[in-house]
Write a structure and sequence with these properties.
11 helices, about 20% strand, five-stranded antiparallel β-sheet, alpha+beta, single chain, Arc Repressor Mutant, subunit A, Jelly Rolls
């Protein structure tokens, strides 16, 4: 009769300790599962989800010499952290900074998840991050932490940095955002710092991509939702080579074109397509559509 399979031991020995350089202690009586999703390998941005228990580094694992810093962002109802003699409980979206050269643990008595962003000690020192950044509680409503979480979501959803140069720019931006988040009581406001401007700009594009079909969408409502001024929003879009009106119009026209050429939408009236795409003035829609695609909405549909 063969030995009973032990998934926790298999995961620890074959993956956690040798590859991730961490270990895992499960909560007794729970069913084990764990997933680790790399988001941006160059930075070590990782999304981890696990059954109840604790991910930890012990004295044996510290022998690997890793002294990088880690921004830990809670992705579950609660996340308990013990590090350098202090215990912290994080709520959803809260964060703290840990260092891999010291023992510590992250986990919960419930299912838990967290985002991790690794920063090498050289990068940390280069940005003159303060020693008291470790173990502090960074609240979910921190303006820079909101930007950082949104920037990571954008990385997950789409390849916003496909070229080598683009990925290096994103890497620098992420490191700068982590450094700002790690600075106690830091306020970024409407900063012109490249990392802050880039994160704000990406947040604007993400918001427009999910709200463009709202006919009441306006520059002021977007600015209010993102907690920035309309003037700052406008300046960021202009710097990226577009304007609020031009970008929203392009999104709406592309949506209309997709609906008009979809086989399962052939019976939908053109005026309904315009409204569904965010246009409230049908005549204006027809003029813009023809100017953009060189044919009328009816003509485009008829050519399919």
């Amino acid at each position: 009769m063969g030995m009973q399979r032990d998934p926790v031991r298999e995961w620890r020995e074959q993956y956690a300790r040798c590859c991730l350089r961490v270990d895992f202690g499960p909560l007794p009586g729970t069913t084990f599962h764990a997933s680790v999703k790399p988001i941006f390998p160059e930075l070590g941005i990782i999304r981890t989800a696990s059954s109840p228990g604790f991910v930890f580094r012990d004295e044996d694992l510290l022998q690997d010499g890793n002294d990088s810093f880690e921004l830990i962002v809670a992705q579950s109802q609660e996340l308990d952290i013990a590090h350098r003699g202090r215990e912290i409980r994080l709520g959803p979206g809260d964060a703290t900074i840990m260092q891999a050269s010291a023992t510590g643990r992250v986990g919960s008595r419930e299912r838990f998840g967290f985002l991790e962003v690794l920063v090498s000690s050289a990068e940390w020192d280069r940005r003159a991050c303060r020693a008291d950044a470790l173990r502090q509680h960074i609240g979910f409503n921190s303006s820079v932490l909101k930007l950082l979480r949104g920037y990571i979501r954008s990385l997950e959803r789409s390849a916003i940095a496909t070229s080598v140069e683009g990925r290096e720019i994103v890497r620098r931006h992420m490191l700068d955002l982590v450094a700002i988040a790690a600075t106690p009581h830091q306020s970024i406001g409407e900063s012109n710092l490249s990392a802050v401007a880039a994160a704000h700009t990406q947040a604007i594009f993400d918001y427009l991509a999910s709200h463009f079909s709202d006919p009441e969408l306006s520059l002021s409502t977007v600015a209010q939702s993102l907690q920035i001024s309309p003037r700052y929003l406008q300046r960021l879009l202009e710097t990226s080579g577009t304007s609020f009106t031009a970008h929203v119009t392009e999104l709406r026209l592309k949506r209309a074109f997709a609906l008009l050429t979809a086989h399962d939408k052939r019976d939908v009236r053109i005026c309904s397509v315009a409204l569904e795409s965010g246009f409230s003035d049908i005549s204006h829609f027809n003029r813009l559509f023809r100017s953009r695609f060189g044919d009328t909405p009816r003509g485009v549909r008829g050519n399919q």
